[in-house]
Design goal:
The complex is a heterodimer. By secondary structure, chain A is mostly helical. Chain A has one domain (about 1-180). Helix content of chain A is about 65%, strand content about 0%. Chain A has helices at about 1-20, 25-35, 40-60, 75-90, 95-105, 105-130, 165-180, and strands at about 145, 155. The two termini of chain B are about 40 Å apart. By secondary structure, chain B is mainly alpha-helical. The chains are: A mainly alpha, B mainly alpha. Chains A and B meet through helix 1, helix 2, helix 3, helix 4 and helix 5 of A and helix 2, helix 3, helix 4, helix 5 and helix 6 of B.
Chain lengths: ~190, ~190
Amino acid sequence: MSQIILAGIFGLLFGFILHKSGASNPQHIINMLRLKDFRLAKIILLSIGFSSLLLFVLSSLGVIDAHFSVKTAYVGVIVGGLIFGIGWAISGFCPGTSVAAIGAGGKDAFIFIGGGLIGAFLFMLVYGSIKNTALFDKLFGGKATLANTGVEKYTTLIENVPASYVAGGIALLFIALAFALPEKLED
Amino acid sequence: MWSAFRKKEWSWKASGLLLGLAFLITAAVVKPIGVSTQFVILDGIIWNGISNKLVVKDETAKKGYASTNAYLNKSGGKYAKNIAKPLNYSFVFVIAMIAGGLLSFITESKKDIPIERNTPKVWKDNYGDSHLKRYIFVFIGGIFVLFGARLAGGCSSGHMMSGMMQTSMSGYLFAIATFSAAIPVAKIIYRK
């Protein structure tokens, strides 16, 4: 039961922050993808860098006991990502931002979710006939990370360097890039 | 504090740090954020409501549930179980996000007029004021996004944010793939 209460609190916070960041506004997503307005790109880079840095440093110090959940890398991640990218550019929504946007009353977000339910349904129907194809061939050994997560079932690709250095280095690169990008480009 | 609450949009730094904290805290306390799976769960709930034979109890399955649909049946009936019991962490999380978006919206001091909210300016600059056209495009976009996300096994939140936070290869692959398709498509569709 306490998990459900946590879900309510965390979901509320995440939706709130997503909307206040402007990520749920398709205008910002489309202009980022047109390479006209990098504000959202800066936000994404900073948030990944900041969370990754804290995640690995705090876990290595034993301050937090993080629940790592690494997804499998397979051919479908790339093919699905390409299909995702087309729809993302057309609509200006991702699944998460559309959910926050319907809270704010965006009608187009409602319609996006309607399309999304159809898209997910189509995948449910075709999955049975594609599950044994090369689309699901693993890459990099499947559940693989660059930095060591300390979870045995996950493959570590950079083994000889401490995890907080690997993840920390990448994180600092992301943060530096976030600061280096200009907010807006002039036409 | 209150003025930050009322602000329509935070600065990129504040947004990035708070968004990062949200991804970190959820991973530290429960599990990393992911959204697109819940589209499948909602589909399943609707489908099961119509047929009620889609998801059944199955003692032999790892999660205790099985489905006639191969996708819902995978991973020991994990999705089948979440459809049978929608009051679970991930589904409630996504429903609560709607309330978060609403709370953010009602506290805004300066609101967009409804037209701005339903059709972004960049759309109108390129395709005029027709809402219908935008709605058709958004609907098709939604089909692509969720089909792609399910084939990829995650979306911007699960792969890109939570994934790259953990330095997952799947996260980097997904991010590279989505941007390589999305940038040229956005440039072609939205020239102005």
